[in-house]
Amino acid sequence: MKFYDCSTAPSPRRARVFIAEKGIDIETIQVDLGNREQLSDWFRKINPYCTVPVLSLDDGTTYTNTAGIRAYLDALYPEPNLMGHTAQAKGRIADLQWRIETEGMMARAEALRNSVPGMKGRALTGLEAYEQIPELAERGKARAARFLAGIEGLVGAKPFVAGDSYSVADIDLMVVVDFAGWLKMGLPDDAVNARRWHEAVSARASAKF
Amino acid sequence: MKFYDCSTAPSPRRARVFIAEKGIDIETIQVDLGNREQLSDWFRKINPYCTVPVLSLDDGTTYTNTAGIRAYLDALYPEPNLMGHTAQAKGRIADLQWRIETEGMMARAEALRNSVPGMKGRALTGLEAYEQIPELAERGKARAARFLAGIEGLVGAKPFVAGDSYSVADIDLMVVVDFAGWLKMGLPDDAVNARRWHEAVSARASAKF
Question: The whole model's pTM is what?
């Protein structure tokens, strides 16, 4: 099994922290997104979608996104549990994870990729070249700010965002918060619960990954 | 348990077909998106995000998106299996489902919501009013066309998109194809495998839902 990663990028970190929490030892290969190695001939043979993360099995099977990687690894290594034991916990965690990904991760990515000069012609990840859309950057910034402000209510008084147990929803939410810095954004100063939660998840050994 | 639906919209259909395949009998309440009933006071109390689908349990728990609804119901009603029995099948189905949702569903929605006059100020679902971005409509159309053309290769010679068994990936792919008509788009005429697949999934009893 091989894990194709980029240690500086948000998407593969979602898988990386998951792997660290599960305590799975996987050979890791860095793909240098800064030098567009994801578009190289060698990597296109691994993943024609030209994105990381990728998990490649010895039989040639590949999972080309975090959803696939997590579903596979979670079935093989169910503990420690990160996706819920009961039906209600499974539903709650999946519900939150989806919202954090589509409203937090995606808004942040839209804002960044459509505005920074280094991403001209790279407004979406992957093989195709898409030009930046300045209006989409503005919309992404507005959505990301709204999402960041909403974390206070989302976490509330709970230890973790989905309740008493750490889950994939915490991983993705931490990644959103940590990479919001690239947009010079972050948690509001008065977001007491969100800041307490962020401190707790960041203190875990997995957060270093 | 109550299911909040809109019989004419793509997102709730993803949950609806899933429920039909599982054979679960749930009280269904229609939310009239055409008249913006999702923004009404009564529905905001059910789902502050102002979107459908929603699954509401008798104890007040709500799942406010398809991911949460499916995870909960799948844990309660594991058979017939729609998300994979083995680790490899679970990974493969989750991988495909994510790709179909982010590249197919979202591109189609971007194209439509940013172009049709009836959706002015409603470029994203939910409570907030976002103006249409014409460049995003164009990008969405290009991506949707590319995605539709790629279904032929995605399905290939397999009975279903993830292999021998029908899964949530088939449900979401069918919804993308069926709602592409709103953009006057569809499967290419020469997409033999994609057309054979689409005919097979559309002939299932669940496709009427």
Answer: 0.97
